[in-house]
C-alpha cells in the first residue's frame, strides 16, 4: 500500500512528460508534413511540363523535392517583371480581351482576379485589423475581422444616413472558414491592437489562447493600502 502513491506519481510524471512531448512534436510534425505535401503537390503539377534538358533531376538521377515549385516561382516572377513594361502590358491586355469574349471563362477570370488583387494589393486594408462589435445583443461582444470601408452601391445607400459604414467579417468558433459579412457603423467598432493571426488563434481556441497585451496608455500605478490601514 505504501508504494501506491509512488506508482501514481510516476504514472502522472510519465503522462505529463508524454503530453509535453506531444505539444512540442505535434506542431512541428504537422508543419513539416504540410510543407512537404504542398511541395509535392506543386512538383506534380509543374515538373511534367519542364523540358528534360532543363530538369536538374535528369542530370543528378535523383528526385529533388521543390524543383517544380522553385521553377514555378521563378517563372511567375519573370512574368510579373515582363508584365510591368509596355510590351508585357500589351500582351496581358490582349490575352484578357480574349478571355472577356468567353461567356463562362470571363466570369471566373474576373472574379478570381478581383479577389487576388484585393488580397495581395499592398495598399489593401482587408483583414489587417481585428475589432469588437456588440452582437447578438447590447452588452455582448463578438470578435470580427475588419475588411475595409463599405464601397459601391452599399456605401452610397448606407452612408446616406450620415455615418460611415465598415465591412466586417464575423467567423464562428472554432472553424473560422464560414461566417457573416456585416456592415457596421465605424463608431460601433472597437478596434483591437492584436493581429489577425492572434485573433484567429483566440477564435479557434475558444478564448483559451489570448495574446499578451500591454496598455499603451499605462501610467504610474497608484498603490492602494490594504484594508485596515489608513494613511495618517
Automatic annotation (TrEMBL):
Transmembrane parts of this sequence: 18-39, 59-82
The keyword Amino-acid biosynthesis is annotated on this UniProt entry: no
Top-level taxon of the source organism: Bacteria
The keyword NADP is assigned to this record: no
Pfam families: DUF502 (PF04367)
Stored InterPro entries: COV1-like
Keywords: Membrane, Transmembrane, Transmembrane helix
Name the UniProt record assigns to this protein: DUF502 domain-containing protein
Organism the protein comes from: Rhizobium deserti
